[in-house]
């Protein structure tokens, strides 16, 4: 059974999953990962979703303020054991819903060119590719997406 919990970046299950995420991203990108690693700090992220499958931490994601009308989706990850079971879609939907509750109009996010699963998730969830924004503007391994929250 899948359950979702709202928390913040101090949540120990979130921190465990983010460690696995960082290891996986490092494995996919090697040295290139260093260009984006500084943009993934966990300090003061107040809006975190942790997904549990039968009580085990299965996935996570977070949102943080980007500007007055836009939330940025961060640290999306699903443990390999739970992939293909709808965890990522549920977490992303919960983040979109929470962003709307917080009166954001848009969500934006960055993912990598070597993450086809993530790209598929975002496009199938209504996110449209946009030019790379902010700190990702010149990062060649990044792809950025945006969704209007209706």
UniProtKB/TrEMBL annotation:
Signal peptide residues are none
Origin: domain of life: Bacteria
| InterPro entries attached to this UniProt entry | Acyl_CoA_acyltransferase, Bact_Acetyltransf, GNAT_dom
Q: Which UniProt keywords apply?
A: Acyltransferase, Transferase
Give the Gene Ontology MF terms in alphabetical order: acyltransferase activity, transferring groups other than amino-acyl groups
Q: Tell me which PROSITE patterns the record gives.
A: GNAT
Protein name (Swiss-Prot/TrEMBL): GNAT family N-acetyltransferase
List the PANTHER family: AMINOALKYLPHOSPHONATE N-ACETYLTRANSFERASE-RELATED, AMINOALKYLPHOSPHONATE N-ACETYLTRANSFERASE-RELATED-RELATED
TM ranges are none
Domain named N-acetyltransferase is located at: 1-150
One Pfam family this sequence matches: Acetyltransf_1
């Amino acid at each position: 059974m899948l359950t979702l919990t709202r928390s913040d970046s101090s949540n120990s299950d979130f921190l465990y999953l983010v460690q696995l995420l960082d290891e996986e991203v490092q494995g996919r990108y090697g040295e290139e990962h260093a260009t984006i690693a500084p943009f993934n700090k966990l300090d003061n992220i107040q809006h975190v979703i942790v997904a549990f499958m039968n009580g085990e931490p299965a996935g996570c994601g977070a949102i943080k303020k980007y500007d007055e009308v836009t939330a940025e989706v961060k640290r999306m990850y699903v443990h390999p054991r739970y992939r293909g079971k709808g965890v990522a879609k549920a977490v992303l939907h919960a983040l979109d819903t929470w962003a709307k509750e917080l009166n954001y109009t848009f969500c934006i996010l960055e993912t990598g060119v070597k993450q086809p699963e993530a790209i598929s998730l975002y496009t199938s969830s209504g996110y449209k590719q946009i030019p790379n924004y902010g700190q990702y503007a010149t990062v060649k391994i990044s792809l950025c997406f945006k969704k209007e929250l209706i």
